[in-house]
Amino acid sequence: MCIRDSSDKTGTLTCNMMDFLKFTVVSYDAKRNKDIITPYGTGTTEIGRDAALREGRKLNDQKPPGWKAKNGFYFYDPRISENLWRTQDNSEELEFLLAFLAVCHAVIPEPDPKTGEIIYQAASPDEGCLVKAAKEIGVEFVSRTENSVTLNNRGKLEEWGIFNVIEFDSTRKRMSVICEDPRGRLMLLCKGADTVIYERLKKDTENEGIHKENLDYLTQFAEEGLRTLVLARAYLDNRTYAAWNHRYHEASTSIVDRQGKMAAVAEEIEINLELVGSTAIEDKLQMGVPKTIELLSNAGIKIWVLTGDKQETAINIGFACSLLHDDMGLFVFNNATDDNVLSVLKCYLSDARHVDSQDLGLVIEGGILELILRDATGQGGGVADGSGDADKQVKITEREQLFLSLATRCRAVICCRVSPLQKASVVSLVKNNMQTVTLAIGDGANDVSMIQAAHVGVGISGLEGLQAARASDYSIAQFRFLQRLLLVHGRYNYRRISKLILYCFYKNIALYFTQFWYTLFNRFSSQSLYDKRALASYNVIFTALPVIALSSLDR
């Protein structure tokens, strides 16, 4: 039996306990008479140290000897810590970035009844981490009402008006807040993945270098395994906002396709954004992840990681958790288009067929995956809708067949920058077209469709909520428990069911073959060999004793 295990990286392999480590900010340099990008934050992550060790790079930690984290806050930069950021030339831009983090979110502050300290309740650990970071550096989120948020900046309370909150979802990959700052400026604050924010930045040659430089920093952060967000803003005039708000209100009260209409109207105002900066958060690997993946691989289980993270982050996570290794041949899809993706697949498959003694790995992004998982009409070929009823055979396209042939020759497959629907599509593609058992494991609401599409769904109950656990067949607390679920409890359960099925066949054959043999002597008169009471007790008492004895003595 071959099992293909699909997992989502975020939260599934990590602790979902976030540490704010680095950020960048765009500021005006009077000496150069232009905008510049400045990075802040020192140190690296466990994944970054592993990557440096593989590449033979030396790491320099700028933290002073004996430095300890304060209140569980691990960020350190001599230009920022201890309120020294207020003495910097770009203090105004730094203050705005911190206020951005303290305003653009859906966190609820709750005072501790014993200590009076404000505790942040966040639906996402990322949001809670960013708000806490703003507080520790110098701008504290104090309270929230329906139409405003209050910040504590240098001991002075500032009120920001909140007019609209366009919430984050896995399709939009961004969150926006339309607000008014204490100076009366009406603006849109937008944070999200670099792919979606960069599409909406104001296009001009003056800022093109800043955008590229910030993207380079994001790539460096991703190579250290950090989770990145891009921050942007746009100033609005009252007339433009009033007209847009009217359309947004109509969309929000629509009965038909409300979410789709709201998203379409939101697109209209999330344009011509100015880059503010970016943030980078560490999410440590869970304990026992590398050992678990190694055991599952040795057991013949093919592991595919389906994640929304950047390619650099996904690859370094793969090395850190022993999914990838230095001696592995890696197929990476870069810059493939609709015109050449078929030839690239054929070329990679040809190379893979000539490799016998080396492990292979495949890394592919969601944009290229979208080109593969559809036919010429734009509809999925051998892909189901993720509803779990995907047992029927669907005609598979040539691209999908080549992708499956290539992926099955690889020890590990990493699909990055994928949406929840694409996760379910990949699982359904394998489930419908291969004689294998698929298992999907995830921890968040964006993994539900993938979990339901697989033969077996496993949910991790953690800080991302219980949606995945409720939609799954089995629920566990950490990824490392998967090894006992599959290799111990799964094996014992498989043996128990096999013994029970064989025993049921045996006892019925023993009963009815003797009856059949007796008919040769009673001249087929239908007379029974056994007493009626003995027949009635056969399944209830006589043959139940071995089952009871086996279950009592079983582990």
Describe the structure.
- With 555 residues, the chain is α/β, with parallel strands linked by helices.
- The protein is built from 18 helices and 19 strands.
- The strands form three sheets. It has a nine-stranded antiparallel sheet, with helices on both faces.
- A hairpin with a 2-residue loop joins strand 7 (148-153) and strand 8 (156-166).
- Helix 1 crosses helix 9, helix 2 (91-103) packs antiparallel against helix 3 (125-137) and helix 5 (205-223) runs parallel beside helix 9.
- It starts with a strand and ends with a helix.
- The relative contact order is 0.11.
Which terms summarize this structure?
single chain; 555 residues; alpha/beta; 9-stranded antiparallel β-sheet; 8-stranded parallel β-sheet; 18 helices; 40% helix; elongated
C-alpha end-to-end distance: 23 Å
Number of strands: 19
Largest sheet: 9 strands, antiparallel
Question: How are strands sequenced across the largest beta sheet?
Answer: 3-2-12-11-10-9-8-7-6
Counting helices, strands and paired strands, the structural category is alpha/beta
The mean pLDDT is 85
Q: What oligomeric state is this? A: single chain
Radius of gyration: 29 Å
Helix percent reads 40-55%
> What is the overall shape?
elongated
Q: What low-confidence regions span 5 or more consecutive residues with pLDDT below 50?
A: 375-381, 383-392
- In DSSP terms (H or I, runs of 4 or more residues), the helix count works out at 18
Q: β content, as a range?
A: 15-25%
